[in-house]
Amino acid sequence: MTSAVSSVVLACASDQSIFLCGELGPVWRVTEGVVRLDRGSGPDRQPVHLALPGDLIGAEALCGQPYQLSASAFTNCRLEAVRSPADAAPEPLLRQALLQHLDRSQDMAQLRTGSVLQRVTHLLGLMGLDRAVHEAGRAGQADAVRRALPKLREVALLVDAKTETVCRALAQLLPPRSRKSGPVRAAGRDLSSSVPGRRFGEWAANTSLVGFAA
Hints:
The protein is built from 8 helices and 8 strands; from the N terminus they run ββββββββαααααααα. The chain is an alpha+beta fold. A hairpin with a 6-residue loop joins strand 4 and strand 5.
Protein backbone atom coordinates (compact mmCIF):
# COMPACT_ATOMS: atom_id res chain seq x y z
CA MET A 1 0.00 0.00 0.00
CA THR A 2 1.32 3.42 -0.90
CA SER A 3 0.97 6.46 1.29
CA ALA A 4 1.06 10.22 0.80
CA VAL A 5 4.22 12.01 1.76
CA SER A 6 4.73 15.53 3.02
CA SER A 7 7.27 17.81 1.36
CA VAL A 8 6.54 21.35 2.53
CA VAL A 9 5.39 22.60 5.92
CA LEU A 10 3.58 25.94 6.14
CA ALA A 11 3.02 27.94 9.35
CA CYS A 12 0.36 30.66 9.20
CA ALA A 13 -0.71 33.32 11.66
CA SER A 14 -4.39 33.89 12.32
CA ASP A 15 -6.16 35.56 9.36
CA GLN A 16 -3.21 34.94 6.99
CA SER A 17 -4.04 33.82 3.45
CA ILE A 18 -2.98 30.28 2.54
CA PHE A 19 -4.10 30.17 -1.08
CA LEU A 20 -6.61 31.91 -3.34
CA CYS A 21 -9.35 30.56 -5.57
CA GLY A 22 -8.04 29.90 -9.07
CA GLU A 23 -4.45 29.21 -8.03
CA LEU A 24 -2.70 25.92 -8.75
CA GLY A 25 -0.91 24.11 -5.94
CA PRO A 26 -0.64 20.96 -3.85
CA VAL A 27 -3.15 19.34 -1.57
CA TRP A 28 -2.61 20.50 2.02
CA ARG A 29 -3.24 18.66 5.27
CA VAL A 30 -4.01 20.72 8.38
CA THR A 31 -1.79 19.53 11.23
CA GLU A 32 -2.51 22.25 13.83
CA GLY A 33 -5.15 24.93 14.27
CA VAL A 34 -8.19 25.65 12.12
CA VAL A 35 -8.42 26.81 8.50
CA ARG A 36 -11.39 28.61 6.94
CA LEU A 37 -12.35 28.02 3.32
CA ASP A 38 -14.18 30.90 1.63
CA ARG A 39 -15.94 31.68 -1.59
CA GLY A 40 -14.17 34.79 -2.81
CA SER A 41 -11.62 36.80 -0.82
CA GLY A 42 -11.24 40.11 0.95
CA PRO A 43 -14.21 41.94 2.49
CA ASP A 44 -16.74 40.08 0.30
CA ARG A 45 -15.63 36.58 1.27
CA GLN A 46 -18.28 34.05 2.31
CA PRO A 47 -17.28 31.18 4.63
CA VAL A 48 -18.01 27.77 3.15
CA HIS A 49 -16.14 25.26 5.32
CA LEU A 50 -13.76 24.85 8.21
CA ALA A 51 -10.84 22.44 8.10
CA LEU A 52 -9.65 20.90 11.37
CA PRO A 53 -6.43 19.03 12.21
CA GLY A 54 -6.14 15.97 10.00
CA ASP A 55 -8.35 17.44 7.25
CA LEU A 56 -7.29 17.92 3.64
CA ILE A 57 -7.79 21.19 1.79
CA GLY A 58 -7.38 21.85 -1.91
CA ALA A 59 -8.22 18.23 -2.79
CA GLU A 60 -9.30 19.35 -6.27
CA ALA A 61 -5.57 19.49 -7.05
CA LEU A 62 -5.67 15.68 -7.12
CA CYS A 63 -7.74 16.04 -10.29
CA GLY A 64 -5.39 18.60 -11.81
CA GLN A 65 -7.82 21.43 -11.09
CA PRO A 66 -7.10 24.88 -9.60
CA TYR A 67 -8.37 25.65 -6.12
CA GLN A 68 -12.12 26.23 -6.09
CA LEU A 69 -12.11 28.16 -2.79
CA SER A 70 -9.77 30.52 -0.96
CA ALA A 71 -8.17 29.35 2.27
CA SER A 72 -7.01 31.40 5.23
CA ALA A 73 -5.94 30.69 8.80
CA PHE A 74 -8.90 30.98 11.16
CA THR A 75 -6.39 30.55 13.98
CA ASN A 76 -2.62 30.18 14.06
CA CYS A 77 -2.10 26.95 12.18
CA ARG A 78 0.35 24.63 10.47
CA LEU A 79 -0.12 22.66 7.27
CA GLU A 80 1.87 20.15 5.28
CA ALA A 81 1.81 19.67 1.53
CA VAL A 82 0.55 16.21 0.59
CA ARG A 83 1.40 14.49 -2.66
CA SER A 84 0.76 10.97 -3.85
CA PRO A 85 3.87 9.08 -5.02
CA ALA A 86 4.35 9.26 -8.76
CA ASP A 87 3.36 5.62 -9.22
CA ALA A 88 0.29 5.81 -6.98
CA ALA A 89 -3.30 6.70 -7.78
CA PRO A 90 -4.95 9.51 -5.78
CA GLU A 91 -8.00 7.44 -4.82
CA PRO A 92 -7.18 7.07 -1.07
CA LEU A 93 -6.84 10.84 -0.66
CA LEU A 94 -9.97 11.43 -2.73
CA ARG A 95 -11.95 9.06 -0.50
CA GLN A 96 -10.67 10.83 2.59
CA ALA A 97 -11.56 14.22 1.12
CA LEU A 98 -15.09 13.04 0.25
CA LEU A 99 -15.83 11.68 3.72
CA GLN A 100 -14.34 14.79 5.31
CA HIS A 101 -16.50 17.01 3.10
CA LEU A 102 -19.66 15.28 4.36
CA ASP A 103 -18.66 15.83 7.99
CA ARG A 104 -17.69 19.47 7.51
CA SER A 105 -20.89 20.19 5.57
CA GLN A 106 -22.88 19.07 8.60
CA ASP A 107 -20.69 21.16 10.89
CA MET A 108 -21.17 24.22 8.70
CA ALA A 109 -24.94 23.76 8.72
CA GLN A 110 -24.87 23.80 12.52
CA LEU A 111 -22.72 26.92 12.49
CA ARG A 112 -25.24 28.77 10.32
CA THR A 113 -28.60 27.66 11.76
CA GLY A 114 -30.27 27.80 15.16
CA SER A 115 -29.73 30.48 17.76
CA VAL A 116 -26.43 32.36 17.84
CA LEU A 117 -25.76 30.80 21.23
CA GLN A 118 -26.12 27.33 19.70
CA ARG A 119 -23.86 28.26 16.79
CA VAL A 120 -21.12 29.65 19.03
CA THR A 121 -21.39 26.62 21.32
CA HIS A 122 -20.92 24.28 18.35
CA LEU A 123 -17.91 26.27 17.15
CA LEU A 124 -16.31 26.01 20.58
CA GLY A 125 -16.94 22.27 20.47
CA LEU A 126 -15.18 21.96 17.11
CA MET A 127 -12.23 23.80 18.60
CA GLY A 128 -12.10 21.45 21.57
CA LEU A 129 -12.94 24.35 23.90
CA ASP A 130 -16.31 23.05 25.12
CA ARG A 131 -14.97 21.42 28.28
CA ALA A 132 -12.83 24.47 29.02
CA VAL A 133 -15.93 26.67 28.73
CA HIS A 134 -17.84 24.36 31.07
CA GLU A 135 -15.06 24.61 33.67
CA ALA A 136 -14.20 28.28 33.11
CA GLY A 137 -16.30 29.67 35.95
CA ARG A 138 -15.08 27.16 38.51
CA ALA A 139 -11.42 27.19 37.49
CA GLY A 140 -11.12 30.89 36.63
CA GLN A 141 -10.12 30.08 33.04
CA ALA A 142 -12.53 32.33 31.12
CA ASP A 143 -9.83 34.77 30.03
CA ALA A 144 -7.69 31.97 28.62
CA VAL A 145 -10.68 30.65 26.66
CA ARG A 146 -11.29 34.11 25.21
CA ARG A 147 -7.64 34.38 24.18
CA ALA A 148 -7.91 31.05 22.37
CA LEU A 149 -10.60 32.49 20.11
CA PRO A 150 -9.97 34.35 16.83
CA LYS A 151 -10.99 37.98 16.57
CA LEU A 152 -14.62 38.58 17.37
CA ARG A 153 -15.45 39.80 13.86
CA GLU A 154 -14.06 36.54 12.40
CA VAL A 155 -16.22 34.46 14.71
CA ALA A 156 -19.24 36.58 13.79
CA LEU A 157 -18.59 36.15 10.07
CA LEU A 158 -18.34 32.39 10.44
CA VAL A 159 -21.56 31.98 12.43
CA ASP A 160 -23.41 34.58 10.31
CA ALA A 161 -24.24 36.96 13.15
CA LYS A 162 -23.48 40.49 14.28
CA THR A 163 -20.42 40.96 16.46
CA GLU A 164 -22.48 42.33 19.34
CA THR A 165 -24.76 39.28 19.21
CA VAL A 166 -21.77 36.94 19.35
CA CYS A 167 -20.38 38.99 22.23
CA ARG A 168 -23.64 38.52 24.16
CA ALA A 169 -23.59 34.78 23.44
CA LEU A 170 -20.07 34.50 24.80
CA ALA A 171 -21.10 36.49 27.84
CA GLN A 172 -23.76 33.84 28.50
CA LEU A 173 -21.18 31.07 28.21
CA LEU A 174 -18.29 32.67 30.08
CA PRO A 175 -18.00 34.64 33.33
CA PRO A 176 -16.74 38.25 33.15
CA ARG A 177 -13.14 39.04 32.30
CA SER A 178 -10.56 39.05 35.04
CA ARG A 179 -9.27 42.52 35.94
CA LYS A 180 -5.77 41.29 36.70
CA SER A 181 -3.36 39.99 34.09
CA GLY A 182 -1.33 37.71 36.39
CA PRO A 183 -3.98 35.04 37.05
CA VAL A 184 -4.93 35.02 33.37
CA ARG A 185 -1.48 33.86 32.33
CA ALA A 186 -1.55 31.19 35.00
CA ALA A 187 -4.97 30.07 33.83
CA GLY A 188 -3.66 29.76 30.30
CA ARG A 189 -0.94 27.38 31.47
CA ASP A 190 -3.39 25.35 33.53
CA LEU A 191 -5.81 25.21 30.61
CA SER A 192 -3.43 23.45 28.26
CA SER A 193 -2.70 20.72 30.79
CA SER A 194 -6.09 20.27 32.43
CA VAL A 195 -8.27 20.22 29.31
CA PRO A 196 -7.60 17.11 27.19
CA GLY A 197 -9.71 18.39 24.28
CA ARG A 198 -9.04 16.68 21.00
CA ARG A 199 -7.65 19.84 19.45
CA PHE A 200 -7.07 22.20 22.35
CA GLY A 201 -3.35 21.61 22.84
CA GLU A 202 -2.24 23.67 19.87
CA TRP A 203 -4.81 26.36 20.67
CA ALA A 204 -3.68 26.82 24.26
CA ALA A 205 -0.08 27.12 23.10
CA ASN A 206 -1.07 30.16 21.05
CA THR A 207 -3.24 31.97 23.57
CA SER A 208 -0.87 34.93 23.69
CA LEU A 209 -0.91 35.22 19.90
CA VAL A 210 -4.59 34.91 19.04
CA GLY A 211 -6.52 37.97 20.15
CA PHE A 212 -10.14 38.45 21.08
CA ALA A 213 -11.04 41.87 19.72
CA ALA A 214 -13.63 43.40 17.42
